[in-house]
Amino acid sequence: MNDLPSETEQVYARQGMGQRIGFGQRPALLVIDMQNDFCDPDAPTTLYPSICATYEPIRALSQQARARGVPVLYTQGLVAADGSSAGLWKLKMRHHGLRGVQIEDSRGAAIIDELAPQAGDRVIRKWRPSAFFRTDLEVFLGVRGIDTLLVCGTSASGCVRATVTDGFMRDIRCMVVKEGVADRSEAVMNANLFDLNQKYADVVSLAECLTYLETLPGLANSDATTR
Question: Beta-strand (E) ranges in the chain?
């Protein structure tokens, strides 16, 4: 986030942007689209190798969240095998048009083994960039009274950004964990994190999130199940 010219930062600062939202009282961890089609070195839509640096931060957050009884939610971006659900993706992105990535029930669409969901975690199947769009995510956040999402995953400029802006519109505090997100270009990622931090979310460090989780009172274990 520090690669932008200082005059850009000054413009936003003069207009009073970039204030802190702050953590709420009832968080959930949201891991976005950590799938083989984004992590495998030879996948046509890969973010390798930069995405590998997110594995350990996400693992540490997941372990701490589970230990504190904080819900751990995953998203899985999918396309129907016949391509019928691809919508405009098939026009905008060649490999969606070729039905080559994120195909439902394929290995490429599966969440990577390194970050596999555990018992009690929930997997949200989604068909568009935002985890909120026509999914049951909002139902599960509502019944648990979740007011804060610790957001990580991929890509920062795509599904992470779409989900965070949708969360903001629902008055959910989105904390984007900077060590836990990736993109295909460092410049693109930094620009998007800067903009999100100015308008829609707090971009926070892994250390801040782990400390926050440590200080939470014990929460009841989630009654959600992985599916």
Answer: 27-32, 72-77, 122-126, 148-154, 173-182, 202-204
Sheet holding 202-204, edge to edge: 122-126, 72-77, 27-32, 148-154, 173-182, 202-204
Q: Of the listed 39, 152, 159, 209, which one is catalytic?
A: 159
Q: Taking the domain 24-215, which CATH number applies?
A: 3.40.50.850
Entry pTM: 0.91
Q: What is the pLDDT of the chain when averaged over all its residues?
A: 92
Give mean pLDDT, residues 60-78: 97
pLDDT digits (tens, 9 = 90+) for 152-172: 999 999 999 999 999 999 999
- Residue 159: active-site member: yes
CB of 189 closer than 8 Å to CB of 156:
yes
- Rounded distance between C-alpha atoms, residue 117 and residue 179, angstroms: 20
Each domain of the chain, given as residue ranges in start order, spans 24-215
